[in-house]
Design a protein that fits this description.
The structure holds two protein chains of two kinds.
Chain A: E1 15-16, E2 21-26, E3 29-34, H1 36-42, E4 45-49, E5 56-57, E6 62-68, E7 71-76, E8 81-86, H2 89-92, H3 96-99, E9 108-112, H4 124-136
Chain B: H1 3-9, H2 12-26, E1 30-36, H3 41-54, E2 58-64, E3 70-73, H4 79-82, H5 85-90, E4 95-97, E5 105-107, E6 111-119, H6 130-144, E7 151-154, E8 157-160, E9 163-172, E10 176-184, H7 189-192, H8 210-213, H9 223-234, E11 239-243, H10 245-251, E12 261-262, H11 265-282
Parallel strand pairs in B: 1-2, 1-11, 3-4
Antiparallel strand pairs in B: 2-6, 3-5, 4-12, 6-10, 7-8, 8-9, 9-10
Classes of the chains: A alpha+beta, B alpha+beta.
Chain lengths: 138, 284
């Protein structure tokens, strides 16, 4: 059986990391989750392991993991900061990451250390092209 | 049709075959091979997690049996849901929660462990996602079991026909992945009684209990032949470099904090209490 990914949804107004996480910066808070491309490739998410509020996250470093198809996959923070809120709904309903990766499936909210870190991330057009090229190369 | 065009339009399995044919001309990535015998499974898992997170090499670890029986759950495993905790406590069976996903196994000297830890670009054309990794590992083991049994990768399990003989699991980081398997060379029927039927099970299981669902590899091929054929199959993709534990200890400097843990007696007693409470509620 050949498994092919369908075209994934990319939202304008968000910034994207090459490891397929998104970040939405609004005022003093940045919300982080994984993209539709990532959730489609990961399969059904059955468990989400997230840190506690108050923990620090580093740019490009892992802060948690999702479990899908017998695999844990690291989630990496696109920017550094301090976690101010964690999405507790994902404890009972991890499938929100699949069904609503940009809304109800958000994972953490952080107070960014340095908003300028957002400038090195991809915009929606760049990320869309990145995903197409990555899928085409494999 | 040019070679480039053939690569671009080929399905993944054909792509892998073409890459293997080219590999001899292009040179293969290096893979360190560590062969262990009877190493405790907790020690093996700690080593694997450390190599995944701190090494930049590719590794194959083969542990030919573990010293004493142990239960190993996946990262999200809850003992109250997965185990008959009363007998586990009574018989003092160690319970480990490992760092990879997937289900619960009970392992002992009849289990052969094969682990692959790779950089994400080590296998050409393979994306570092669960299904892609498993699609490749299915091809790897297809070579091992060619002409032996009715081997398949079925709903992410390694099976002969309708029966599972290998439980596998994975962990994927930004730049690396691990795929490890516990192969049921042989098992004690009594040990399976410590495991409940999991709520999440593949469709092909059809509600069968453990003894109807699994089978023993020893009915299909000799133990040493399985291990040697696995190494041969890996050699199609990697230049295998045998190493030993002393060499690993010498090269791995920094202390590493494992997430793989042995559950405490207190944790198991709490799980048992929770399990009894649930049974009490159901019987009212």
């Amino acid at each position: 059986m050949v498994w092919r990914a369908k075209a994934s949804k990319v939202l304008d107004g968000l910034k994207y990391a090459s490891s397929h996480e998104w970040v939405k910066h609004e005022g003093s808070v940045a919300t982080i989750g994984i993209t539709d491309h990532a959730q489609g490739h990961l399969g059904e998410v059955v468990f989400v392991d997230l840190p506690e509020s108050g923990a620090s996250v580093g740019k490009g470093s892992s802060f948690g993991a999702v479990e899908s198809v017998k695999a844990t996959s690291d989630i990496n923070s696109p920017i550094s900061g301090e976690i101010v809120e964690v999405n507790s709904k994902l404890n009972e309903t991890p499938g929100l990451v699949n069904s609503s990766p940009y809304e109800d499936g958000w994972m953490i909210k952080i107070k960014p250390n340095s908003p300028s870190e957002l400038e090195s991330l991809m915009g929606s057009k760049e990320y869309t092209k990145f995903c197409e090229e990555e899928d085409a190369a494999h | 049709m040019s070679d480039v065009r053939r690569f671009q339009t080929a399905p993944f399995s054909m792509l892998v075959l073409m890459m293997k044919q080219q590999a001899g001309k292009l040179g293969l990535p290096l893979m360190n091979l560590l062969r262990l015998n009877g190493t405790p499974i907790l020690q093996q898992l700690h080593l694997e997690e450390k190599l995944l997170r701190t090494s930049s090499d590719n590794w194959c670890i083969i542990n030919d049996g573990t010293d004493t029986p142990a239960i190993v759950m996946g990262v999200s495993g809850k003992p109250s849901e997965l185990l008959e905790v009363g007998p586990v406590l009574r018989d003092r069976i160690p319970v480990i929660r490992r760092f990879t996903g997937g289900g619960t196994v009970i392992v002992d000297s009849g289990t052969v462990f094969i682990t692959l830890i790779c950089n994400k670009d080590a296998v050409p054309g393979m994306q570092p996602y669960p299904r892609s990794i498993m699609s490749w590992s299915g091809l790897l083991y297809n070579e091992v079991f060619r002409g032996i049994g009715d081997f398949k990768l079925r709903e992410n399990d390694y099976v002969f026909g309708e029966r599972k003989f290998g439980g596998n699991a994975q962990s994927i980081t930004k730049n690396r992945w691990i795929h490890h398997t516990s192969f049921l060379w042989d098992y004690a029927v009594g040990n399976m009684a410590y495991l409940k039927q999991p709520a999440r099970a593949p469709k092909y299981r059809l509600g069968r209990d453990h003894t109807e669902f699994i089978c023993r590899m020893k009915e299909y091929l000799p133990r040493s032949v399985f291990i040697e054929k696995t190494v041969e199959s890996i050699e199609s993709y990697f230049s295998v470099n045998p190493t030993n534990s002393e060499a690993i200890d010498a090269s791995q400097g920094a202390e590493f904090v494992h997430s793989t843990m042995l559950l405490t007696r207190q944790e198991l007693e709490e799980a048992s209490a929770s399990q009894l409470k649930t049974i009490g509620v159901s019987s009212v």
